[in-house]
Amino acid sequence: MGNLEIRLPIIQGGMGVRVSGARLAAAVANAGCAGVIASAGLGLFEDLRGSQSHRLGEDILRSEIRKARQLTDGVIGVNIMVALSNYEALVKVAAEEQVDMIVSGAGLPLSLPQYVGSSPTKLVPIVSSARTFQIICKRWQSHFHRLPDAVVVEGVLAGGHLGYSPQSLADDSAPTLEQTVTEVVVVANSFFPAIPVIAAGGIFDGQDIARFLRLGAAGVQMATRFVCTDECDVHDNFKQAYLDAGPEDITLIDSPVGLPGRVINNAFVESIKRGETKPFLCKSQCLRSCDPRKAPYCIAEVLAKAAMGKLDESFAFAGTNAYRCNEIVPVKALVAELTRELARAMAERQACSPAKVA
C-alpha cells in the first residue's frame, strides 16, 4: 500500500465499541501486521463507565491514537464508520494525527478524501461488491483526483453489521467472498498502479489467507481472531463468550441501525428477537440512520456494555467462525501461528503445482 510495509499481509479489523483500542492495535503492529483502532462509541463508553472527563469522541480518539503511537512504531490505522454522526470530525482527527490509514465502511465513504486535506494518511474504503467499488473510484477520481490506496472487500461471514440484505443472508443468495474478491480484483487491476485488494469476513487461519492471496488479494483483514488475545481491549467476559460459543450460537439480528448484525446468542439476544424493547434516553444521536423514537434499544449502549463485560444486558458481535476460538493467547503467538500456517499452505500449493516442461 504505497510506502506502508507490513511483514505479514494482515490488517486487524476495527471492532467497536472499545474492542479494538490502542493496546490491541499496537500489539498487532508490533507483531508485523497493521493494527486498527475502532472509533465508534468512544465517547459513550467513557460516559457509561462514569468517567468525569466528559470528552467528546474526537478527543478520546486523538488520545487513543497517541497512546498507540507511544506503544509502537508499526502501522496504525483507524476504522471510522460513515454512519457515525460525527464522521467528518473523526476523519479530521485521524488525518491531523497522521495515522497510517483510515478504513471506512458502514455506508459509502464518497466524501472521505474531502476531509483529510494534505495528510499522508492512506484511505481504504470497505465494500461488499465490485459495483460499489466502482462507484467510489469514479466519485473520488472526478471530485478529488485520487483513488483509494487499497480496498477492503467484506463478505457475508463477517461479524457485526453486514452490508447485505437480510433476505440475501437468509436464503444464501448473497455472493461468496471468493466471488466478490475475484470481481473486485478485476476492477482494481484496471488501474495503474493496481489498487491492493484486502479480503475480509470469515478468515480464520493461514489456509484462508493463502486462498485469497491466490485469488489476487494483496492481504486479508481479520477481526474475530484477535478478540481472544491477551491484548484485546475488551472485558474478559466478552472473550469468554467466544470461548463458550458453539456453531449454533452464532446468529443474526436486525440491528436498530437498519442492517443485519452477526452476534453470539444469549438471553439478551433471545429477548430482542421476541420483540422486547429496552427503553433508553438518546444523548448524542451517534448514528445517522438510527431513529431513537423507533429503535427498540440503543445499539451503541448495548455494545458499550458488552465491552464492559455486562453481557446480561448486551451481546457480543462476532464473525461466523468465532466458535473456533478455543484459547486466549498473546497477539505475538497468534501472528506466529498464522505465519506458520500461511507458509505451510503456500508450500503445499507450490508442491502440488504441475512441473514445468522445458
Q: Can you describe this structure?
A:
The chain has twelve helices and eleven strands. With 358 residues, the protein is of the alpha/beta class. The protein has two domains: 10-235 and 327-351, TIM Barrel (Alpha-Beta Barrel), CATH 3.20.20.70; 237-307, no CATH class. The strands form two sheets. An eight-stranded parallel sheet has the order 1-9-8-6-5-4-3-2. The protein has a three-stranded antiparallel sheet with strand order 7-11-10, with no helix packed on it. Helix 5 (130-144) links the parallel strand 5 (122-127) and strand 6 (151-154). Helix 1 (22-30) packs parallel to helix 3 (57-71), helix 5 runs parallel beside helix 7 and helix 8 (206-214) packs across helix 12. It is globular. 49% of the residues are buried. Mean pLDDT is 90; it is low at 48-54.
CATH fold title of the largest domain: TIM Barrel
H/E series? EHEHHEHEEHEEHHEHEHEEHHH
Unreliable runs: 48-54
First and last CA, distance? 36 Å
Please state the structural category.
alpha/beta
Strand order of the largest sheet: 1-9-8-6-5-4-3-2
Annotated CATH architecture of the largest domain: Alpha-Beta Barrel
Helical residues, percent = 25-40%
Largest sheet: 8 strands, parallel
Gyration radius, rounded: 20 Å
Question: Under the CATH scheme, which class of the largest domain?
Answer: Alpha Beta
Q: How many domains comprise the coordinates?
A: 2
Give the beta-strand count: 11
**Number of separate helices:** 12
Principal-axes shape call: globular
Topology:
Blueprint: E1 10-12, H1 22-30, E2 35-38, H2 42-48, H3 57-71, E3 76-79, H4 87-96, E4 101-104, E5 122-127, H5 130-144, E6 151-154, E7 160-161, H6 166-170, H7 177-188, E8 197-200, H8 206-214, E9 219-222, H9 236-244, E10 250-254, E11 260-264, H10 267-273, H11 299-307, H12 331-352
Parallel strand pairs: 1-9, 2-3, 3-4, 4-5, 5-6, 6-8, 8-9
Antiparallel strand pairs: 7-11, 10-11
